[in-house]
Amino acid sequence: MRVDFHTHIIPGDLPDFTKKYSQDRWPVLKPTCSCGANIMVSGKVFREVTDQVWDPKKRIDDMGKEGVDMQVLSPIPVTFSYWALVSEALDMAQIQNDFIADTVKSNPSKFLGLGTVPLQDADAAIKEMDRCIHDLKLHGIEIGTNVNGKNLDEEYLLAFFEMAAKWEVPLFIHPWETMARDRTPRHNFMYTVGMPSETALAAASLIWSGVIEKFPNLKICFSHGGGSFPFILPRLDQGWNVWPDLRKTINPPSHYLDQLYFDALNYDPLNLQFLIDRFGYDKVMMGSDYPFLLRETPPGHTIDELESLTPKQRDQLLGINALNFLNIKEKFE
């Protein structure tokens, strides 16, 4: 079974929140034709998209062509809206969560779903996570790498991570509002340099601060192969060794890897082998970033190219690990 863990979706009838809440920062889906649209932010084109991003039938057709059995649906990070009033961000989250849940319910053999929460407020985030998991029966929560420029080790977020661990909710961490945005607009470096660096900062923050140590049941997957985090891990360990006054954990960062998972989206067999060697065959899962331009086509192409894999290991990376991460056993038993 091939499971594409990293795909994004948005409701085709997403309301125009710029009119509803009188703020032009909201993402708006503006049709350009019957099979395409622009995601507009502050009156500018944020991203050109096709009906792949909202039409389940189109996605299923693409999955058939590309040999994918299931997709894990998650919101597009620009819709996180952590900057907004909590009640308004919750409105945006609930519309998407309901849409994803309905899509999964209508196509249970093709889709699994992740929800989103207003992470700028821990109580509201916990309440919506509860609804996502226990009422809508979604399979996890996608969150951003920071909240309005604050890292994920902020004190107020501990309650959210505590409940995610208690309820065994898998968390998918995706970069958004990346660091050094003022230095990365040229050459689209926000996507190729900023996002990997942003993901590394999120991972380092959760480990160094002791969040991972404090909640050993917490399950986290980092997108884009963990960005640059796998490569800077020894440097983090060295920092822990030479700055004892900054230590927040009993052990160095590399000790806290059992709870971390990664999608395999790093495009290169050499990098993928490094990711596997560092974290293990059971911690890496296929993810393509469907349906966006930087996606891997076809999904799992790099895994297929990795000659060192045994058939069992290949099956793990292509599907079993994703289902295991999402606490879904029956799909492969």
TrEMBL record:
Enzyme class name: lyase
Its quaternary organisation is:
Monomer.
- One Gene Ontology CC term in the entry: cytosol
Per its record, what are the GO molecular function terms? aminocarboxymuconate-semialdehyde decarboxylase activity; hydrolase activity; metal ion binding
- Coiled-coil residues: none
Question: Would the keyword Calcium turn up in this protein's UniProt record?
Answer: no
Put simply, this protein is called: 2-amino-3-carboxymuconate-6-semialdehyde decarboxylase
User: Which CDD domains has this protein been placed in?
Assistant: metallo-dependent_hydrolases (cd01292)
Against Gene3D superfamilies, the record matches this protein to: Metal-dependent hydrolases
One Gene Ontology term of the biological-process aspect is: secondary metabolic process
Pathway(s) it belongs to: Secondary metabolite metabolism; quinolate metabolism
